[in-house]
Amino acid sequence: MDVKQIYLPQMENFAYLIGDPSSRTCAIIDPAFDPKKILNTAASYGYTITHVINTHGHSDHTSGNAAIIEATGAQLCIHRADAGQVSRLLTRAISRILGGKGSPPAGLVLEDNDIIKIGATDLRVLHTPGHTPGSICIYTDGHVFTGDTLFVGAVGRTDLPGGSMLQLIDSIHTKIYTLPDDTIVWPGHDYGESPSSTVANEKQTNPFT
Ligand SMILES: [Zn+2]
Ligand SMILES: [Zn+2]
User: Relative to the alpha carbon of 91, which ligand is closest?
Assistant: First the structure.
């Protein structure tokens, strides 16, 4: 399995390409700001995008949905509790400000423990509410994509509508810190001293958990 981290500097976001080398198909996690850069990344590695996965419904993770899906016909995957948010008027308005368009509705509405198949690669949905009610992390052997739930050395904010610090900390402890220690943590923003970390390192050094 291939992981490419794609830096989107406007709000220090990371989008991700998760590629299945045998089928040359891939998923894109959290496209925003610069969908051309994301499409070009996939093309440069010879990957066809079959799925767009949003770790949650905020515009800085979803404003590229429309452009990627229009270009590829990929299926949009988002947790049930955030699925309504991507097509809401306010989110559409913010997406336009961020240079994107309103998102199409979800094609695949996710629940905890669902498996998204990318060729021969299984991606497991971990429902991790706290930053938003429908926040998810995506786990596949050796890698976890943590969106705005867990950053390198920090955690997501919980002062926005639907946020809960108690839930966030519980989600991190029960869903992320129970993964194998050497699992690589791939966050949704470049807020830390390095662009990725490990479960063991966050357990030992993250001051918020
Ligand atoms: Zn967010
Ligand atoms: Zn964010």
Answer: 1
